[in-house]
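Dienelactone hydrolase family protein
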Amino acid sequence: MSDLPGWTRSEFTDDGVTHPTYRKGEGPGVIVIHEIPGITPQVLAFAEEVVEQGHTVVMPHLFGTPNAKVGPRSMAQAAREICVSREFLRMATNTTTPVATWLRALARDLHAELGGPGVGAVGMCFTGGYALAMLADAAIAAPVLAQPSAPFAVTPGRSRDLGLSPADLDAVKEKVSAGCQVLGLRYKNDLAVGGRFDRLRDELGDNFIAVEFPGVKHSTLTLHRQQEAVDRVLAFFKEKLAG
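Predicted structure tokens:
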């Protein structure tokens, strides 16, 4: 596995599950969860910007090769790893993906170390809904959903599914009703997102903040980066995580 220059590599284990992590920076904690195919140069660049704003950033390495470019080989490798792992749910509805349990533990550990109102979390694409799943059972104060795309939107029902069990959805709604806001980013005609933003509006009301851009592109923070999207996320973290 490749190291990322300037980042401290470690491992985190919860309930017998271990994943590598990369850490950099000082200040309130933010967990940056990479998209498919992994911690690409674009994901790394975004994480560096979060560090530069004054945050301790932890990037879990869940699949792929760190710092590999987006291409057919890296996409195929990530797809193989996801398909054989029981931690990731691709098609199931009304179910919280098992890896969310590990991510929640990581967030609790980081919050216990750093203190403050909570931890920020951003998921992207396949992992876009993970930040919402973490909110259900962890000290998440600034959840960001960048083009949430799982479970894959191959039917109308799946396109509106939030990747949460009914109990976790209730827990999320309780926290949102108490004042926690959720930031969502997408291109308005991105078919991978399906009807999830409409569902999020229905379930979370005015505390779901939707930032939408025209077009059919996908990766708002990385490959198809919108500067406004990055700026909104940084401002969200700065506002919500200040001690």
